[in-house]
Automatic annotation (TrEMBL):
Annotated family: Belongs to the asp23 family.
Protein name, entry field: Alkaline shock family protein YloU
Alphabetical list of PANTHER family matching this protein: HYPOTHETICAL CYTOSOLIC PROTEIN-RELATED
InterPro entries on file: Asp23
One Pfam match: Asp23
Length: 116
């Protein structure tokens, strides 16, 4: 992930962008957690792409494509929470890195039934 200007270039590792996204996800109301586990290991074997704790990043011509696998809390409006998450992730990544975002796809992998 690269930003080039007249002074030179800045390169961001996927780990850095994933940490920004992970922190933003944890601060978004209604999201229980990012989904991890068998889905990640299977996707890594099939595609060769490393997924960081439910976060998959792909560089496209139009910007960064972000795919999130999340666990949502029971009793919330999933559509509203996912829209808020998309807006929060877009703002955080663009503000911290300056990288353009193409799309943010969210896959709900489960529901957190615990009371918090």
């Amino acid at each position: 992930m690269l930003i080039q200007n007249i002074l030179g270039k800045t390169t961001f590792s996927k780990e850095v962008v994933s940490k920004i996204i992970g922190k933003t996800v944890s601060m978004t109301e209604g999201i229980g957690s990012l989904s991890t586990g068998i889905v990640e290991s299977l996707a890594q074997k099939l595609t060769g792409n490393r997924i960081y704790n439910g976060i998959e990043l792909r560089e496209q011509d139009t910007g960064l494509d972000i795919q999130l696998s999340v666990i949502v809390r029971y009793g919330i409006r999933m559509q509203e929470v996912c829209r808020d998450l998309q807006e929060n992730v877009r703002a955080a990544v663009e503000n911290f890195t300056g990288l353009p975002i193409s799309t943010i796809h969210i896959k709900i992998e489960g529901i957190d039934l615990s009371t918090k």
